Amino acid sequence: MTAIVCGRVTIPTGLGLRSATLTLTDPQGVRRTAATSSFVFYNFGNVVMGQSYTNCVSSRRYRLVSLILTIIGNLNNVDFVGLD
User: Fold this and answer.
1) What is the rounded CA–CA span in Å between residue 34 and residue 58?
2) What does each C-alpha distance from 40 to 14, 62, 73, 83 come to in angstroms?
3) Which residues lie below 8 Å from residue 65, measured CB to CB, with a gap of 6+?
């Protein structure tokens, strides 16, 4: 079975961070990438359930903390906030 991982990327003031690059890495080291849309949302589809993934974001200006996600169903609102 598969699931969806999606959310937003914002800056400390709450405004959206456009064109941020997200990387979802599975336990075997296979990476998938996505970029935030003009509405600052991202979406990874067909994520295999029952595994743990590392979800990280890169931005030229902001630091963002990576997350370890265990997929047991759809994960909505997996949001990131940039740090100065």
Assistant:
1) 11
2) 11, 15, 23, 16
3) 80, 83
Report the distance separating Cα 23 and Cα 34, nearest Å: 7
| 75 pLDDT higher than 80 | yes
What φ, ψ does residue 22 adopt, rounded to 5°? -110, 145
* pLDDT value at 3 more than 90: yes
What would the pLDDT profile of 11-66 be if each residue is shown by its tens digit? 999 999 998 999 999 999 999 999 999 899 999 999 999 999 999 999 989 999 99
Distance CA 65, CA 34 (A): 17
> What distance in Å separates the CA atoms of residue 40 and residue 42, rounded to the nearest whole number?
7
Please tell me whether the overall predicted TM-score, pTM, comes out greater than 0.85 for this model: yes
Q: Judge residue 9's burial from the number of C-beta atoms within 10 Å of its C-beta, 0-12 exposed, 13-18 middle, 19 or more buried.
A: buried
